[in-house]
Each structure stands twice: as C-alpha cells, then as structure tokens.
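Colleagues,

For the teaching module next term, I've prepared a clean inverse folding example: a structure given as tokens, and then the sequence designed for it. I'd like students to try predicting residues themselves before seeing the answer, so please don't circulate the second half yet.
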C-alpha cells in the first residue's frame, strides 16, 4: 500500500531496530524527558523480538518516505493464546504526522490480528499521549488498567488498553 507521500513495507527491514529506537528516544526525550534507559529498553526488546520473529504469529509494518523508515508498528503474537497479541513499538516521526500513516498502520495490525484469529490484542502506553489514545480507541481498544509506574524509566501513569476481536 502506498499513497503519494509514503509507502508501506512489511517485515524486517535493515535498520528497523535502530530507527524505531531512535524515533522513540527522540520523541520521548523531547516531550517527556525519558532517559537513555528508555531508548536502550526499546532497542533491547525489539532486538530480542526480531531474533525470535515467527511470521506465522508476528508481523511488522513500516511507513517509508524516500526509503527512510518514518513510522512503524509491530504485532508480537508470542503470547496470543494466553495474554493476547501485543501491539508494540508504534511510532511516527514528525515527518509522518498528519499523513494518515498511523491510522493505516493500526488498521493493518488489527487486520492481521483478525486474520490470525487472535481474540485479544493489548498495548501498554501512558496517560498524556492523546493523539495515540484517539487512534487506539478508534481501532476498538478500551482502557482496562491504569497504575502509577516506571517501566519506561520515568514515573508516569501507565495504561493498558485492549481490544477484543471477533474471529
């Protein structure tokens, strides 16, 4: 899928881990004062995911402008039969915002989860990310838990959203 301003690529792309970690680090450092703890956690967990990637249950999509990854989202299906499929590492650069790429990526991820007949999809985020919250809710996610925590290296009001899917 592509439009005039970006194209979508699927699966692993060279530089994916580094670019997704970079986009997370820059955005959350500038807007939320997150530290190197957050960047290294994103890079470590995404690296671990890529090393165990199984196309029968997992998938990743990236939106590119001029061959540069500018947005990305991943479905981690490792625990889909138990806790649910995990929507992870959703991010868009400043260059991508307002182009509809975020909505398109979430739609692709949710379509994949429906095709895989996952009954539950969840994601972890925190209070204050209003544009992302709006996208999650429009995709069928509902807030199911809020706790004060520091899993990202900075104390925030952590939130878990989940979407129940019909097979």
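(Answer key — instructors only)
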């Amino acid at each position: 899928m592509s439009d005039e301003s970006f194209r979508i690529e699927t699966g692993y792309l060279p530089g994916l881990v580094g670019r997704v970690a970079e986009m997370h680090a820059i955005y959350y450092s500038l807007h939320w004062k997150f530290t190197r703890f957050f960047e290294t956690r994103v890079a470590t967990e995404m690296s671990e995911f890529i090393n165990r990637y199984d196309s029968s249950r997992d998938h990743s999509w990236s939106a590119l402008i001029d061959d540069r990854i500018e947005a990305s989202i991943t479905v981690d299906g490792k625990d889909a039969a138990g806790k649910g499929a995990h929507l992870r590492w959703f991010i868009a650069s400043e260059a991508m915002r307002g182009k509809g790429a975020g909505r398109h990526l979430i739609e692709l991820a949710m379509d994949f989860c429906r095709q895989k007949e996952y009954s539950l999809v969840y994601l972890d985020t925190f209070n204050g990310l209003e544009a992302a919250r709006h996208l999650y809710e429009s995709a069928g996610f509902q807030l199911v838990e809020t706790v004060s925590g520091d899993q990202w290296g900075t104390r925030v009001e952590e939130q878990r959203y989940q979407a129940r899917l019909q097979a």
